[in-house]
Amino acid sequence: AAKYTGADRAREHSGALDATAQHHAELAAGLRRGLERGEFKLLYQPIVELPSGSVAGVEALIRWQPNDQPVISPAEFIPVAEHSGLIIDLGAWILETACADAAAWQLRYGIAGPRVNINVSARQLLDPVLPGMVADALHRHGLTPDRITIEITETAVFAGGAALETVRELRELGVGVALDDFGTGHSSLTLLRTCPVTTLKVDKSFIDDLNGTAEQEAIASSLSTIASTLGLRAVAEGVETQDQADRLHALGYRYAQGFHFSRPIPAADIDALLNAPVLTA
Ligand code: C2E
Ligand code: MG
Ligand code: MG
Ligand code: MG
Predict the structure, then answer these.
(1) 61 Cα to the center of ligand 1, angstroms
(2) What is the ipTM, given to two decimal places?
(3) Dihedral (C-alpha) 82, 86, 89, 94: value to the nearest 10 degrees?
(4) Over the stretch 133-152, which tens digit does the pLDDT of each residue have?
(5) CA-CA distance, 99 to 95, in Å (whole number)?
(6) Residue spans of alpha helices (H) in the chain
(7) Is any ligand 1 atom within 6 A of the Cβ of residue 121?
(8) How far apart are CA 173 and CA 175, in angstroms?
(9) Which atom of ligand 1 is closest in space to residue 74's alpha carbon?
């Protein structure tokens, strides 16, 4: 066989990069077309109160189903939307759709209705028009600000000083701000001194194996103590078993979210849950 040379390797390497870039370019074009064609939808995953299991809120989670193809996960297309800049238009659609659903729930159930959490990406948080867009959406839909919580990530806040100012402006509007995947960033605790959030969403990695080790219990317990000491809500993410739900309640968690309670489901199915007895936590 021919000797494998450095030059071959370099060529293959750049070939691989081209393929990735090409895949991203195609995905970005597909996303833009998908937005025009209405191929996106929001699902909602309940955030429940412990130990009752009653639905306190829901998190909007986007799905993309291109024409007759399988559903594509946001983990795959959100980074591409970020990179291509389409996240600005896609984010506007998400905000609009989630606020419309939240307004329908507010009309139907009043303050007993579910609060709606909306994820925003780093690029959206760095966009100085975001608070104005949120204010406008609240106004047009007749939504009380406390019906909405914006979920942000630590990395987004650290991306620049402007993000922190945006968070302050969102808080001034009266909407909640949640730190998503809390504990997985590099300076989680530092951030709590400067970033005026209302909720910590404790990352699934701290919730997994809760009954496994004393260390895991100590960390999960400390995170809920930090939240309550600072007057913040703590939501445990990725709860998959009854044992975890029981332990979390014992460790002081009042809110939880995960497949144990419900997967993300269409808005109409949330209504079915609200009209039915509470989830069996
Ligand atoms: P996230 O905001 O941390 O959302 C939680 C993710 O964990 C969701 O995945 C949810 O389906 C999944 N999950 C919930 N409970 C469990 C569980 O018990 N076990 C396991 N294994 N997973 C669970 P999803 O919907 O695929 O979303 C992935 C990520 O994509 C989100 O993480 C968020 O960062 C991003 N994303 C989703 N929707 C949006 C959106 O509308 N806008 C933006 N900017 N990002 C979004
Ligand atoms: Mg989230
Ligand atoms: Mg999360
Ligand atoms: Mg996450």
Answers:
(1) 6
(2) 0.99
(3) -50
(4) 999 999 999 999 999 999 99
(5) 6
(6) 6-37, 74-84, 87-109, 122-125, 130-141, 154-158, 161-173, 188-194, 204-207, 214-229, 242-250, 267-275
(7) yes
(8) 6
(9) 30
Beta bridge partners of 265: 44
Position 139, amino acid? H
Tokens standing for residue 245: 């739900």
Considering only CA atoms, which of 262, 265, 264, 261 is closest in space to residue 281? 261
The identity of residue 191, as a single letter, is: L
Cα(249)–Cα(103) distance, integer angstroms = 31
Q: What is the rounded (10 degree) CA torsion for 265, 268, 47, 245? A: -60
SS3 label, residue 265: strand
Q: Can you tell me which atom of ligand 1 is nearest the CA of 124?
A: 44
pLDDT in tens, 197-222: 999 999 999 999 787 788 999 999 99
Q: Does 181 contact ligand 1 (Cβ within 6 A)? A: yes
- Report the C-alpha gap between 50 and 54 in whole angstroms: 8
The DSSP secondary structure of 18-81, one letter per residue, reads: HHHHHHHHHHHHHHHHHHHHT-EEEEEEEEEETTT--EEEEEEEEEE--TTSPPBPHHHHHHHH
CA distance 229 to 236: 17
**Exposed, middle or buried by CB within 10 Å (0-12, 13-18, 19+), for 210?**
buried
Residue type, 26: E
